[in-house]
Amino acid sequence: MSARARHICYFCDYGALSLYSLGCAFAYGAYAMPDHWVSGVLHRYFVPVAAFNSFVCTGLSCYSRFPELEHPRLSKVLRTAAFVYPFLYDNIPLFYRGWGVHVCAWNEAVAGYCYHLLFALLTGFLFASHLPERLAPGRFDYIGHSHQLFHICAVLGTHFQLEAVLSDVCSRRAWLRGHLPAPGLPGTFGTAGLALLGNAAIIGAFTAALPRAPGSSVGPPGIPTEAGCRRDQQ
Question: Single GO molecular-function term (predicted)?
Fold first, then answer.
């Protein structure tokens, strides 16, 4: 795979993660919002702000690939911040339901959200720390690498997240119907469609910028590049 194609694949991956964060906001806004927040200011703007956050996430994470060689620490910080920010925003209702001032009743959904947050924190820790391979380089290249553990924790966290949302759907749907208008197409498919188009435009812009970006013809450290291979052949 060429260095350019590799960057583009990562751009698409970042866009997909951004849209996933928007999907979480749809679910939480519909079923997970604390009772006394329903129809409040945060609830009304929860999904639109999450859509904007998806643009920030995609833009910042795509940009983080450009200074990767010259400033790897900066690149890592930018990429981590790009995903931590929408995660924290999306989970505001969950933080409040689990540990807020007026703690909501403990039920199956709240327990599921807590497990989800636990595995999400483990996912972030593994992404940032590169453990355990940092402690024993070469011993975890095939089994036990942090990236493998990262995905396992992410899948487990998503499982508990889905189970918790389904629990809220079953237990709160009747109450929510009496306090909220039924969601319409503009608020769901319209928002999702605009977010998809916006993220695609951001990915397209960064893809177009690749040939002009400093170091765009080179890949991450340790990966042979097209330009490097041509120089070696000459």
Answer: signaling receptor activity
The model's pLDDT over 120-139, given as tens digits with 9 standing for 90+, comes to: 999 999 988 889 999 999 99
156, 82, 71: which is closest to 121 by C-alpha? 156
Per-residue model confidence as pLDDT tens digits over 46-81? 999 999 999 999 999 999 999 988 999 999 999 999
Question: Does the annotation flag 159 for ligand binding?
Answer: no
pTM for the model stands at 0.84
Q: How far is C-alpha 131 from the chain's CA centre? A: 21
> How is residue 104 annotated by DSSP?
P
Domain limits, the chain? 1-90+182-217, 105-180
43 annotated among ligand-binding-site residues: no
Q: Which long-range contacts (CB under 8 A, 24 or more apart) does 222-227 make?
A: 223/3, 223/6, 225/3, 226/2, 226/3, 226/4
